[in-house]
Amino acid sequence: MPRSISFLDLRAGQAEIEAELAAALERVLSSGQYLLGPELEAFEREFAAYCGVRHCVGVASGLSAIELTLRAAGIGAGDEVIVPAYTWVATWLAVSATGATPVGVDVLESTYNIDPEQAEASVTPNTAAIVPVHFRGEPADMAAIGAVASAHCLLVIEDAAQAHGAKHDGKRAGSLGDAGAFSFYPAKNLGALGDGGAVTTDDDELAAKLRLLRNYGMRDRYRIETAGVNSRLAELQAAVLRVKLPRLDAWNRARAALAEMYGRAFAGEAAIRMPQPPPWADPVWHLYLVGLAERDRCAGSLAARGIESLVHYPVLPHLSGAYGGDAARGSFPVAERLSAAALSLPLHPHLARTGCDAVAAALLDALSDTQ
Ligand SMILES: *Cc1c(COP(=O)(O)O)cnc(C)c1O
Description:
This protein is of the alpha/beta class. It is built from 13 helices and 13 strands. A seven-stranded mixed β-sheet has the order 1-9-8-5-4-2-3, with helices on both faces. A three-stranded antiparallel β-sheet has the order 7-6-11, with no helix packed on it. Strands 10-12-13 form a three-stranded antiparallel β-sheet. The chain is globular, with a radius of gyration of 21 Å.
């Protein structure tokens, strides 16, 4: 029986901080306050400082972080919001949830991130915002996107759900646009023990509006100022995130070291399309995604060797049941081609170097099977 290597191991991450987690959970349990309390306030302060912005507003999920930021900026029905074709469907759904229309834009072959030129070509008089995604933890070209946004007066909301700690020219994701939206889904680089999210921003007014919207639009007790929602980051989750945040950089460095190992193992392999971060990007390797002509056969071959891999994403938003479905095939040829070849290899901070070696060897084996 080959030893098995799972794609992710969330328990290993928990084990490293077990005592501190237990203390944090106990602190919340005994506090008697489970929502909108001191843990959330402290986490918001700490995460804002980490990202290099003035404000962080905790919310219930990454999807909600994007949706509420758009709504706080007054974006809704009649507006268009530019989104990349290659992303998790939540980016698009968050736009749709406001009543605005997501306008997909194809990605760059070299980075899997939104193509700024095509984004500019998609601007219409109704375009209100652009939501670049730092897919796989690698920052999108924020200089070019910022130029498009200022030329057309568009709001820039980073979808930083995969990019906690990533840097663009030395500045952290979450500080690169008008606002940054984060997810703390357990499998993200910074994950809670359940759902969670946050918005980071330097905009005082936007932050104040978000605080209203996440809590029914309530200014003080029972005084509703605007139609908000229930989207709060629980005290328990904030306490867990406070234990993990001081580890984030070390965990991201561990990911980068493994990514480097994969890079060395695959160097010169023409059959493997490897990630090539642009010079200004300091990625956090949420995913180690390679491109393989025979993706499904390779995934099967890895599985036969006990190695779990995943496809991010087998169905792009525009081809999903939420949008065009199969009839929309061909709309974004680059994204469609990249996604057909995409395979994410196991990579997490607690993956042993021997495990990484075994995955690399198995993939090279799988490739030579056909040659
Ligand atoms: C995970 C993710 C989201 C959504 O986050 P949730 O917390 O699951 O709502 C949005 N965008 C991207 C790119 C993601 O990876």
